[in-house]
Amino acid sequence: MRRYFMYITAKMNRNIISVFPEASISLAFKLMREQSVRQLPVVENGKLVGMVTETLLSEVSPSKATSLSIYELNYILDKTKVADIMDKNVVTCTEDMSIEDVALLMNEKDVNMIPVVDKNHMIKGIITRNDIIASFLDILAARGKGSRIVLIAKDRPGTLADIGTLLKERNYNIVHILNLPTENPEESELIIRVDTIADDSLLKLLTEKGYRIEKVEHR
Fold it and tell me: Which residue, of 29, 44, 53, 77, has the fewest CB within 10 Å?
């Protein structure tokens, strides 16, 4: 499969930290501490069968106020298996899903990490909320050099083409453009990123063409 930029296959982490169903919850705790994660996919023979979280582990662990001895505590933690407490209703996605669709899924289900599986439920990777944020930063070219121009334009056919032609004629390369609605249905807010610094003559020309410059930032 080609690693298309806007799809999960290009952004997911293939280095999967997981636990098997028959592992003890003490092992799951240990893995979470060592890997600095708060949830682990439960995998059996490559297939995703559940999810165990820090919250689930805490719920089944004896409280600090318990009268049990350290030996009894260790016995309980070693005897209880991940399969006994794991969540079997796991929110998943597939490699061919878009970044936007997975972002919507995360927001709808209120989860911070989603396993990526194939049609047979074999785990292929994971995608986290931080991965999604990083992806949108890349899409918005937020980390690149150049200028970010925010302007108001009439919402009509040909506006983007006109601006593109104007910038091209002056050797500006557009790396990102975002078209947002405004309170006025006849206008749009355009956020344009170019990979070089926009000079005053360009901003003056845009104004003369009827575009209202709201903000300009340089990096």
Answer: 44
- The whole domain housing 176 covers 147-218
Contact 57, 42 (CB under 8 A): no
User: Do 79 and 46 reside in the same domain of the chain?
Assistant: yes
What is the H or E stretch that residue 126 is in? strand 123-128
The answer to whether residue 112 is domain-embedded is yes
pTM above 0.70, yes or no: yes
Structure tokens at 208: 């003369």
- Would residue 142 count as lying in a domain? no
pLDDT in tens, 27-50: 898 899 999 999 999 999 999 999
pLDDT at 57: 82
Round to whole Å and give the CA distance between 113 and 91: 9
Residue 67 above 80 pLDDT?
Answer: no
Longest distance between any two alpha carbons in the chain, whole Å: 80
Q: Which residues 6+ apart lie within 8 Å of 165 measured at CB?
A: none
User: 179-189 pLDDT, tens per residue?
Assistant: 999 999 999 99
Eight-class DSSP state of 165: H
Q: Is 107 exposed, middle or buried (0-12, 13-18, 19+ CB in 10 A)?
A: exposed
